[in-house]
Amino acid sequence: MAEMDTSGGGGHKKGPGVKKAKKLSTRVDLTPMVDLGFLLITFFIFTTTMSQPTALKLNLPKDTDKPDEQNKLKESAALTVMMGKQDKVYYYEGLDPAKIQASDFKGIRDIILDKKRRTDPKDFMVIIKPTQDATYKNTVNMLDEMKIDGVARYAMVDITSDEYKLVLLTEQANGIK
Amino acid sequence: MPRAKIPRKSTSVDMTAMCDVAFLLLSFFILTTKFKPSEALSVMTPGSVSSKVAPEKDVVLITLDKDGKAYLSVSDVNISQKQDIIDAMNTSKNLGLSDAEKAAFVKKADSYIGVPFSQLKSYLDKTPEELKAIVLPGIPVKDSTDNELKDWIAAAVNAFQGSKMNLLVKGDNAAKYPSFQGVLYAFKKNDQLKFQLVTTPVAAPVGSELWKVQQATGSKAAE
């Protein structure tokens, strides 16, 4: 059907003086048109799904000064992560900031999962403290990490000046400007 | 015995039907595609595994650009709320806005506020072409003593009273944390503790906890 007319010079001649007009096929090769059609389809399929932004839900606790309304936290079950310059992550277990250790976004997953395995699931809590050098991306990535690792309890808390100093010292020691 | 003749068949296939299908699908996708409106603020959002689609109606959106400057916008379908917000701001801050200036925020599609109160009047006087040429300072958020976003959110909460309000934050990858902290402060001051962060979807990493859950339930469990 959709073939090219490749039959070469037209049929047999009737006679020496009679010229018969070459019969041209009316069929057109549609293959390039189909190619183009599918190319455009792929383009539109991709643009429709890509432009759909998603939303990450975030609930904040209410600030309260009353001690009985505040959440209690077991020292052994806490893991504090702090995000610093250049996508670096610093963390310490328990409540002693002096035990600070450096890591990054690739390494923190194992650290969180390791801590999660070692602690009672109902007590385990991750405290997220972005420093002023962290970017918005770092913050969202860390909240996302909680979701990826299945951490049920996490909180975003402002960093204390002592902790920030420790982060800066660790950054200096590791040569991060 | 003569050999049986195998008839020669053409190897070419009729493309007409395939062409029909291709263009039918093409027209379907063209008609269903919603192109992203050209945004005056270009923001590269971070990725997250969340699969919940961001709402489009009743939205109060705080945009943080790459320099950490905050902008406020309200979805275009909520014209009456937009009017309420700008009216409330006009009276409480004595801005002396004319109706035309208010309309510049209320009536125009994709309008946003990106200046402190002191510059609001002259900002609303400008045409869109003029706005492209200047650099906006953004709504002050970084300092908790001078957090003007707090007042905007308060006005928005008032305007959306009785109906659902979707509070969204759309931040750029490179925005620094203190401006996000300022936005959180403004939310907390107005008791707006539930909000959503606009992100680009990414798949859960293979082998992670969430991935296992998704495999087990056969659906996207992240919300």
What's the quick description here?
The complex is a heterodimer of chains A (177) and B (223). Chain A is α/β, with parallel strands linked by helices. In chain A, 32% of the residues lie in helices and 18% in strands.
Q: What can you see in these coordinates?
A:
The complex is a heterodimer of chains A (177) and B (223). Chain A has 177 residues and is of the alpha/beta class. Chain A has a domain at 67-173: 2-Layer Sandwich (Nucleotidyltransferase, domain 5). Helix content of chain A is 32%, strand content 18%. Chain A has helices at residues 31-50, 108-118, 136-148, 161-173; strands spanning 54-59, 78-83, 88-93, 101-104, 125-130, 154-156. The longest helix of chain A is centred in the N-terminal third of the chain and has 20 residues, at 31-50. Chain A starts with 30 loop residues before the first helix and ends with a helix. By secondary structure, chain B is of the alpha/beta class. Chain B has a domain at 56-201. Chain B has 8 helices and 5 strands, in the order αβββαααααβαβα. A 5-stranded mixed β-sheet of chain B has the order 1-5-4-2-3. In chain B, helix 2 (79-93) packs across helix 6. The radius of gyration of chain B is 26 Å and the shape is elongated. The model of chain B has no long low-confidence stretch (mean pLDDT 77).
Kindly estimate the percentage of residues of chain A that lie in beta strands according to DSSP. 15-25%
Compute the gyration radius of chain A: what is it? 33 Å
Structure summary, number of beta strands of chain B = 5
CATH architecture of the domain at 67-173 in chain A: 2-Layer Sandwich
Most extensive interface between two protein chains, with residue counts: A-B, 52 and 67 residues
Low-confidence stretches of chain A: 7-11
Strand content of chain B: 5-15%
Morphology of chain A: elongated
Give the low-pLDDT segments of chain B. Answer: none
The proportion of residues forming helix of chain B, as a percent range, comes to 25-40%
- Count, helices of chain A: 4
Gyration radius of chain B, rounded: 26 Å
